[in-house]
Amino acid sequence: MRSIAPAMLTVSCLLGTAQADSLNDLLGPREIAVGEGMRGGATGASAIGLNPAGLPLNRELVFEGGYGWRGTDDATLIGVSACDSTNAAPGCFFYDYLGTNPELGGMSGSRRTHVGGMALSKLLLPRVMVGATVKYFNFKSDMAGEMSQSGFTADFGATLRMTQMINLGIAGQNLYSTEEQHPMFPRAIGGGFHARPMPNLALGFDARWRLDDEDVSSSIRYGGGAELFLSGSRGQTGYPIRLGALRDNGVGATYVSGGLGMSTLKWSVDLAARREVKGGDETMVLASMRFWGPREASPGLDTPMY
């Protein structure tokens, strides 16, 4: 019976809401807007869901809260985090909530997932960073054939700074679990690059594979995008503009995304939207607000960070 229940849950997840899992639903508006292409340059809350090794890329104390909505399964996504990369062991504390109300076989139900944990990273060398995220999850569902479950999972990542402008990142999600692998927390591995050819322009591209799928090669999810940061007349306010695209071969879906923001020295607001243009009609919108504490100059390659 233990082997049948996970299989039933996997099928119902695929039929009811193909994109509802922790790999996609721990991401904020900045990551979504650029096609999830940030594993090589993920900092702050972005590092939690993509690559914890990126936390030492900057030096800041930042608090973030976000809200998202997805129409296909009436999903509510809420996330809060506190990240500090000004010390010798950069890290984040975070909590995420995902509530969905999917329809399956003409019947509606509900799923609720709570996730909390901590991400930590370490600068091994001026060019090499490693990190890990430990998550506690609690999943409950009233959908037929689905079982409630709780436990711990862990992510691991590494970032390599090739030059001052180009980073490479690789990360594995849910590679370790204290319980049987839950469909909401599938194992996956991904990598990509993040480049900054100009101080106000960033480009990124990522690819990710789900390791639990029978045909790993067909489960690839890849995408990327760009962020252009426009400064105000006095240089105290900035306006990021983000565009991206994403392809998920596992569910045969293609998405386009975009976002806008406003940033000052003390706070920022980010908005993003993603629309499925092939394979379905999913629409997702997200918003977040950040508040900064102490902020220091980003570290270079030629001098130690601490």
Main features:
disordered N terminus; Porin; 306 residues; 4 helices; mainly beta
Walkthrough of the structure:
The chain is built from four helices and 16 strands. The chain is mainly β and 306 residues long.
| Main beta-sheet annotation | 14 strands, antiparallel, barrel
How many DSSP E strands? 16
CATH T-level topology: Porin
The number of helices is 4
Secondary-structure element order, N to C: HHHHEEEEEEEEEEEEEEEE
Uncertain segments of ≥5 residues (pLDDT<50)? 1-18
User: β content, as a range?
Assistant: over 45%
Helix proportion: under 10%
Q: What's the overall geometry?
A: globular
Please list the strands of the largest sheet in the order they lie side by side: 1-2-3-6-7-8-9-10-11-12-13-14-15-16
The CATH architecture can be named as Beta Barrel
Radius of gyration: 19 Å
Overall average residue pLDDT: 89
Q: Tell me the quaternary state.
A: single chain
Distance between the termini: 53 Å
Per CATH, the class reads Mainly Beta
What is the domain total for the residues? 1
CATH H level: which superfamily?
A: monomeric porin ompg
Structural class given helices, strands, pairing? mainly beta
